[in-house]
Amino acid sequence: VPSGAVAERTFRVVMCGDAAVGKSSLVNRIVNGQFLSNLPSTLGVDFHVKTVKHDGKVVALQLWDTAGQERFRSLCKSYFRRADGAILVYDVSSEQSFLRVRHWMETIQEAVERPIPIVLLANKSDLRDSGRAVISANQGSTLAAKMGVLFSETSALDGNNVDPVVHTLTREMLAVE
Ligand code: GDP
């Protein structure tokens, strides 16, 4: 997208999922196209903007991320209320983060006034090669189907599937009226 292009639509996308699943790394991958092993931690709640061109439309995505607030459920309602879309992340090497997906789903659904497009991401797919993944892709896609959300395996480290996810979510948010 050429710099200076004016976005026709702006969407607020919230990142959620347990601590350390790779939310900030995914935001950095989406916005800067890179992986940093030592990301400077955000203070509180912050967003980064990714501008994408989808079907000839210039769309600005505000990617909202939190620093450690995952632990404080109280923050969640206001954080999620005005969301246009959500990226719910777990780590394929952490069973605990997978078991917590339903909790995050409930938190989103309680907060929003009407359903929003949600994509469930099985992040750190690169760990499959070294046998460190404990949750299969099939477990992830089955859960996503039950919850009625989109699903993809991703890696913030090697970039696997990250761009397609951004476009799929953008398409779904554009389809909401
Ligand atoms: P957050 O707390 O959910 O924002 O997670 P971070 O983005 O801070 O990442 C937590 C840890 O996981 C860091 O050590 C990252 O370098 C690492 N990490 C994040 N994404 C990936 C990934 O796709 N693959 C691997 N192998 N490590 C990752």
Query: What does the oligomeric state look like here?
Result: single chain
Strand content: 25-35%
Straight-line distance between termini: 25 Å
- Rg, nearest Å: 15 Å
Instruction: Report on the biggest sheet.
Output: 6 strands, mixed
Strand order of the largest sheet: 2-3-1-4-5-6
Low-confidence stretches: none
Summarize the structure.
The protein has 6 helices and 6 strands; from the N terminus they run E-H-E-E-H-E-H-H-E-H-E-H. The protein is of the alpha/beta class and 177 residues long. Strands 2-3-1-4-5-6 form a 6-stranded mixed sheet, sandwiched between helices.
Please give a structural write-up.
It is found in: Cytoplasm. This is EF-hand domain-containing protein. It is globular and about 45 Å long. With 177 residues, the chain is of the alpha/beta class. The model has no long low-confidence stretch (mean pLDDT 91). α5 (137-147) links the parallel β5 (118-123) and β6 (150-153). The protein has helices at residues 23-32, 73-81, 95-99, 101-111, 137-147, 162-175; strands at 9-16, 45-54, 57-66, 85-91, 118-123, 150-153. Bound molecules: guanosine-5'-diphosphate. Residues 19-25, 37, 39, 123-124, 126-127, 155-157 line the site of guanosine-5'-diphosphate. Guanosine-5'-diphosphate (GDP) binds at residues 19-25, 37, 39, 123-124, 126-127, 155-157.
